[in-house]
## 1
Amino acid sequence: MNNHAIVIALPNNVVFASELANKLNLNLGSLEIRKFPDDESYVKINSDVNNKIVILVDTLDRPNDKLLPLLFVVQTLKKLGVKAICLVAPYLPYMRQDKQFKTGEALTSAMFAEIISKNIDCLITIDPHLHRIKNLEDIYSVPKIITLHAIKPIAEWILQSGISPFIIGPDKESDQWVREIAKLTNSPFITINKTRLDDKKVTMEIPEITDPKRTPLLIDDIISTGISMKTAINALKNRNLKSPICIAIHAIFSDNAYNELIKAGAEKIVTCNTIIHPSNAIDVIPLIAHEIQNQILKN
Ligand code: R5P
């Protein structure tokens, strides 16, 4: 057991964190967080963290309720004399408001990044939504940033599934990962031209599917409202293809999005375990463990 570092899980991250700790041969520390009757947070760290690297696991979907407890934990860890805090946030939020579209709008991507950056020494995340912001380093000023990609685990899932896919990216931004996944699985691919009209409305132009006998496999980074996947499913329906399989890295699924996609005709929905959801089937923990081992624990 390596005693120079310890893994600590924020609420709902214990399964992920304990598997990560196992892979890294580290102890899982004990953290108590509960709410007082008035909804304020009580935080207590029960493990010895003095002079240790703390790998703090907190995936940050639904971030507003998570941010304050996270900051209390970080501040407490610092008072207890930790060597460094490495935040593992498999899903990093507030990446989509990456531009001020109208006067008076908050540029929340940069604001959130500033709050987090002030408090940690290292950030590890999986496929943050990089669109107009090209690198996390452009808005995060954390001394060490490790941005990982779920491309290989997704490709491995496809290869093991035995399906013969036609890979479809639901927008031009998805080109970066569908192209790589298509290469790794030796599959044809296209990307759709998507125009977003508002939060819950998009239009799509789908190019020709050159091999209609293959299973359409829609791959996106995030399913939030599900409108991007749903619009793609509906557009594919008119082409006499097999029912599509949907793969997403981050399973946000706001409201009833998951059921809506099944109702729309998705054969199956598969996600990575960056956010806990019943659709999780692709494990990103080995990827994270590997990088922590090589880039954090070796030094
Ligand atoms: C958009 O730019 C992203 O890559 C996703 O396509 C999008 O965030 C999915 O959101 P929704 O499920 O609400 O369409």
## 2
Amino acid sequence: MAFTRPRGTRDFLPEEMARRRYVEGVMREVFESFGYGEVQTPTFESLELITAKSGEDIRRHLYHFKDKAERDLALRPELTAPVMRLYINELKRSPKPVKVYYIGNCFRYEEPQSGRYREFWQAGVELIGPPHEEAEAEVVALAMATLERLGLEGFEVHIGHIGVLRRILEDGGVREEDQNPVMNAIDKGEEAALKGLLEKLQVPEESRSVLLTILELEGPSREVLGKARALLAGRTGVLEELERFERVLCALGFFGVEGYRVDLGIARGLDYYTGTVFEIYAPRLGAQKQICGGGSYSLTETLGGAPVPTCGFAFGFDRVLLALEAEGRKLGGDKGPKALVVPAGKDLLGEAIRVAASLRKSLPCEVDLMKRKLVKALGYADSRGIPLVVIIGEEELAKGCVLVRDMKTGAQRDVKVEDLGSIKVHE
Ligand code: AMP
């Protein structure tokens, strides 16, 4: 019986891993250039941690299980809650701001399709401490800087403010826990469900209509803010939230960020978001076009810590990769061996291994371990695109040399074993 992968999971072959590692490397570099340090948390956590303020959608798609001691555990569906737990356990007394990033696998029991998997990777940051709008702006700027460094061209940034939406609901008499299903329906674009919920929660007609109108506001910043201000005239609490949002957008200017769209219809599917929320789309990816989501949130108190301002984002790592590939971006150089060391004679494999060990100090190389004929070994080097073949023969060895063959031109020359360190590959 042959085994297959569990549904919704993937195997990654060396070429793809090289591309993934390259993208990871660029992300790390950009995150670190903004002062973020990498953290790693366990792949599974307590079910309670994962479900605290996580949102209906996350709970529905959870992989959860009991361990042998009957503990309820869950595979992490995202990393913000685990990282907040880590902050409370390990970093809460550290000087502020605390700036951390992560790259890790996540698990959701969703219906697999292109760009949607049951095991996928997120790369994200959390910024903990600063209560100012500039912090929220920094995470948006960082997400955009990362995509720019990766060379992604076709991406759209939509920024909204969940505080505005929550405050409209609050003024309409809706408590926080009842606001969450409303946010979920908005996030999913389920209009009928949303209207039904507002009806059920007996939200007054006026608040209802303000909410439904504001959700439709999307476009360039000045235009949308003008319309929102007019719509919210006289609603002091909501206007205060809108002003907070305007300060975030103003701070984005300091980071040189432009070209985004203001979209007051963004709600995000997780219950912990509070203020600025943003999503980045790569339209080429079709249905699963969202490559990043983030904003400001409040989670530490729910997890038993002290309140502290927090914001961050998570890239859907796999989707960023798909978006880059869809644009034909070259992701990193060729990582394969640059030379194949071939013993040209039965008893020369040991010598070939010795030569390869010294060559490897300057050039990634592989020894032909198959003990096959030279022509076959050359064919193998050709099929793998290995540019040099180092032939170990009796005659050459007697002169203290090896034969180096350039696979592109077919030219061969003797090289002293001690000079092998200086051979170059002409690509
Ligand atoms: P979320 O934690 O739901 O805000 O998701 C953050 C990002 O992770 C999204 O913008 C997606 O790019 C990505 N993502 C979420 N679920 C999946 C999935 N099942 N497969 C691949 N990527 C996903």
## 3
Amino acid sequence: MSQTKDKLLKYQHLKEDIKQKIYNGVYTVGQCLPSERQLSEEYSISRMTVRRTIGELQDEGVLYRLQGKGTFISATKIMQPMSKITSFTDDMRARGMVPDAKILMLDTIPANELIAEKLQCKQGADVILLKRLRLADNEPMAIETLYLQHAICHPIIDKISQGTSIYSLLKQELHINLVKAFQSIEIMPLQKWEANMLGNDDLDSAMYIQRQTFDEQNRAVEYVESKYRGDRYKFYVEMSGA
Ligand code: 16G
């Protein structure tokens, strides 16, 4: 076997083994991983290979490093289904977590071409712009930029400014049922301030989600652009056969 292949196998073995131990509960959330020296002895691989493996698992969100303290096992990612139109508030509550929203911007602006197209309104029409940092159990999860048609949603602006859940306001105050949405996910670079706001300066990209949501009358009620932490979230879909 070539040296490179052998090295790759050993590195892959270490990586899979760490993941397996987390899966089995041998390593638990918040536990400190054995030192680089211990791992290199245990798996008979160089410390450089150990470091590279740990670095990759850090990038994948499986491990995190605390300066001067060591490397620790991360909390498991939030598994978010994509088959239902749910709100951040309800999603977090259903998991027993405490949702929160820090308002970064709330304004009424004229719709540009893109927003007008997404909200199916006239270019220049008033739209409500709401930028929020979404938190669960005080941990930042996503930055959301949400646009609502002013003509439909102006009665709830005051309550929006108090940090109330948008979906609960739409339902309870405006009797709007959201029944259809188009959603896409792609990778997008994060600005330094965004990574900082998301609580992890090492993040250089995030999952960028665009959602256009419709009510029973087929009105485009909201258009949202969000950046979700890829190290804390996993989106999934359930599929059925053709
Ligand atoms: C979720 C939705 C977002 C919606 C928000 C309402 C995704 C990707 N986005 O974050 O479109 O505006 O919930 O949350 O799921 P709220 O009712 O807690 O304000």
